[in-house]
């Protein structure tokens, strides 16, 4: 997914070409992210309104998102459905990539529901369009994995359009066990099986998030929400939520089947399509079969990231994501699931830390530990949170200078290898991400 896009009603950036290759005339800047800007534009030849996402190749490469950009293009090329934002054309230059997309004049569905909950009939109408799009994507081997009202747009007729396929998976990412294993999603929408790190079925995960969306449309708020992230995860694991009093018995039953914490018994898309509550007034919409153009242009003569997103990093291999905030200093934050007791985990952390001559400060009440040493050049915080009766979530935040200890990083090279045995490995699972 692209970094968070900040909505902006301002004018065109001075850096933007007002006439793109003589084909598109750029208008207002609609949003910007770390390496992308989105503009409203007009096709000079036809007068058609489009949205153009201008992506900096340099920033994409620097941020390590090149493969993600290629995957998003490949996925959107597969899709042509009335309820999916259409990628019409890709223009590539030496410095930028331009996504020419269908323009959704009505904006985000999130903006509409934020003003007040929808009626049951209106909620059903948008849910029907959502399932039509999701079912189509699944039939093409595409699993969205980040469905939420912010990624659902509305066109000029107020029909729904699914967008943002940057975190989508395709069928060739499925492992031999028949499951996906990359852990991603937005916290309040994430399915319980993703948190458990046992692999998951992309179709069932999308159905769960569709259930969250339907609840939000009808209630006006999230079913699972808590300022404490771990408390929210526990609610998701246990399926703890309450319906607002105005929810009809039929809708309660239907949403309960969507938000079944057991993916094996959760309702499927085929079953949704046959459900009496869903079928009321439903009209199936068929897909299109338009081809996408991809062009390369020399731009040498041209003028020269709720909605905060959180990738849930519960990697069985300690998926370390380094973040450099000052010269020579590395900060990281990571999480992993363990079947060990909190006492044993903190004990192992303390043992490993003392072997490296670090000072350890423990808080047994809430199972926290602070590690520090090397004259303040290294500090780390370890916290253990209960998820289920058998599993805990361990959070590690650390900061250190790269040059200490002969160039070796204390956490990465010294402490982390000694703790790998604590990471929960479900029977039959394979380490690594897809």
UniProtKB/TrEMBL annotation:
Q: Which residues belong to any copy of the NAF domain?
A: 301-325
One function term, GO molecular function aspect: protein serine/threonine kinase activity
The UniProt keyword set, sorted, is:
ATP-binding, Kinase, Manganese, Nucleotide-binding, Serine/threonine-protein kinase, Transferase
EC top class named in words: transferase
What catalytic activity does the UniProt entry give for this protein?
L-seryl-[protein] + ATP = O-phospho-L-seryl-[protein] + ADP + H(+); L-threonyl-[protein] + ATP = O-phospho-L-threonyl-[protein] + ADP + H(+)
Residues that bind ATP: 53
Tell me the SUPFAM superfamilies matching this sequence: Protein kinase-like (PK-like)
One Pfam family of this protein, by short name?
Answer: Pkinase
Matches recorded under SMART domains: S_TKc (SM00220)
Question: EC number(s) on record?
Answer: 2.7.11.1
Gene Ontology biological process terms from the UniProt entry: signal transduction
Cofactors that this protein relies on: Mn(2+)
- Every Protein kinase domain range: 24-278
| Protein family according to the UniProt entry | Belongs to the protein kinase superfamily. CAMK Ser/Thr protein kinase family. SNF1 subfamily.
- PANTHER family per the record? CALCIUM/CALMODULIN-DEPENDENT PROTEIN KINASE KINASE-RELATED, CBL-INTERACTING SERINE_THREONINE-PROTEIN KINASE 14
Name under which the protein is recorded: non-specific serine/threonine protein kinase
**What species is given as this protein's source?**
Ficus carica (Common fig)
């Amino acid at each position: 997914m692209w970094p968070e896009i900040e909505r902006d009603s301002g004018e065109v950036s001075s850096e933007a070409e007002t006439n793109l290759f003589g084909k598109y005339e750029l208008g207002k800047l609609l949003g910007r992210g770390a390496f992308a800007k989105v503009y409203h534009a007009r096709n000079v030849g036809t007068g058609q309104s489009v949205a153009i996402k201008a992506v900096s190749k340099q920033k994409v490469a620097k941020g390590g998102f090149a493969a993600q950009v290629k995957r998003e293009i490949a996925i959107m090329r597969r899709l042509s459905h009335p309820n999916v934002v259409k990628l019409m054309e890709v223009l590539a230059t030496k410095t930028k990539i331009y996504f020419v997309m269908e323009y959704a004049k009505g904006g985000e569905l999130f903006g509409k529901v934020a003003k007040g909950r929808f009626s049951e009939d209106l909620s059903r109408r948008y849910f029907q369009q959502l399932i039509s799009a999701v079912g189509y994507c699944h039939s093409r081997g595409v699993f969205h994995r980040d469905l939420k009202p912010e990624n659902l747009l509305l066109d000029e007729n107020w029909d729904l359009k699914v967008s943002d396929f940057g975190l989508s998976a395709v069928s060739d990412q499925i492992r031999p066990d028949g499951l996906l294993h990359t852990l991603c999603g937005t916290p309040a929408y994430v399915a319980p099986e993703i948190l458990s790190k046992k692999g998951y079925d992309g179709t069932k995960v999308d159905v769960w998030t569709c259930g969250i969306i339907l609840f939000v449309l009808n209630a006006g708020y999230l079913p699972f929400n808590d300022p404490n992230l771990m408390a929210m995860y526990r609610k998701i694991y246990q399926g703890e939520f309450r319906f607002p009093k105005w929810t009809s018995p039929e809708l309660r039953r239907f949403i309960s089947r969507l938000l079944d914490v057991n993916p094996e018994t959760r309702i499927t898309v085929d079953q949704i399509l046959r459900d009496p509550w869903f079928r009321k007034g439903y009209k199936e919409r068929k897909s299109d079969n338009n081809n996408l153009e991809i062009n390369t242009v020399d731009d040498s003569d041209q003028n020269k990231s709720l909605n905060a997103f959180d990738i849930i990093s519960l990697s069985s291999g300690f998926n370390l994501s380094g973040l450099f905030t000052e010269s020579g200093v590395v900060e990281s934050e990571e999480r992993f699931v363990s079947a060990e007791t909190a006492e044993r985990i903190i004990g192992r952390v303390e043992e490993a830390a003392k072997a490296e001559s670090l000072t350890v400060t423990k808080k047994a009440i809430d199972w926290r530990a602070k590690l520090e040493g090397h004259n303040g050049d290294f500090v780390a915080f370890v916290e253990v949170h209960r998820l289920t009766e058998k599993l805990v979530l361990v959070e590690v935040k650390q900061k250190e200078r790269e040059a200490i200890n002969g160039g070796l990083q204390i956490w990465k090279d010294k402490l982390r290898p000694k703790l790998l045995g604590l990471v929960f490995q479900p029977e039959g699972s394979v380490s690594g991400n897809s």
